[in-house]
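hi! just following up on the protien thing from before. the input was this:
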Amino acid sequence: MMTELKNDRFLRALQGQPVDCTPVWMMRQAGRYLPEYKATRATAGGFMDLCKNPQLACEVTLQPLERYPLDAAILFSDILTIPDAMGLGLTFETGVGPRFSKTVSSQTDIDALPVIQGESDLGYVMDAVRTIRHELNGRVPLIGFSGSPWTLATYMVEGGSSKDFRRAKVMAYNEPAQMHQLLDKLSQSVINYLNAQVEAGAQALQIFDTWGGALSEAAYEEFSLGYMRKIIAGLIKEKDGQPIPVIVFTKNGGLWLEAIADSGCQCVGLDWTIDIGKARQRIGDKVALQGNMDPTILYASASAIRDEVARILASFGRGNGHIFNLGHGITPDVSPENAGVFINAVHELSASYHQ
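and the predicted 3d structure came back as:
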């Protein structure tokens, strides 16, 4: 595990250290926009079959690195592995998305949920982490991840994706004690899961709080951020003499940047609805910032993509602590060539900001 990193830009930027150019990776960089991913998924049989096969999960994790000069790899898995391991029966339906055969709607349901242990309950994820880390051989760092407790809870209570999170919010407002018990079990499970990923070889961690931005400010603090704070406090802080930085990404969380930056994380992930320069003014150099190009710009022309990269770099300005990323995951039918234009533009246009 002590293989020396050949490219440590991403980890350096997370710690606010100097880099030669701004590091870049993409949320969902291993995914359906790549023909080679579609071929491997077809071999696997289905999405969860792919997640549960460490060799194939490693293969798709590395596919984007073969195409592009990315500065980090991210574990190929899904945020819903924890509720699946809790016994809720996860399936993915084409055109529908994730569905659970069981939902959580009562005290009895919550009492029946186990707290997940990383290695024993989700060993296939740890096997994937170990395999990827070995195959990377120090090329770039490996990011591990989890969903936030609130985001996981929404899927568990709703039974899948939701437009308005009505059931989850009704539980939070009508039965707050029940929702807190659910979030507490999920928090402990996430701590165990992420720490197991670190022990297996993950070198940085991201918490995906995809649906935190659906809450009011008071509810966000009570049902989402408070639990992410608890998780960060319970995580392994360093491994093999290296710090393990944590990125918190709350989609639509721009209103609460200062509070997120105070959570104990080393980096705040930004979606595309906030200007990165204004975000930097608000929180200074307290933490690094990750983001934040609108993923749909990747459907535009090469010159439009380059112009937007240039605009975001200029908005952040000179200095350290910026990891370039999309403001959410890359979408399935983006041209792989356009993704390459984006990644190359970040490296090329950012160098002058680091001289």
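The chain is about 50% helix and 10% strand.
The first strand starts at residue 73 and ends at 74.
cheers
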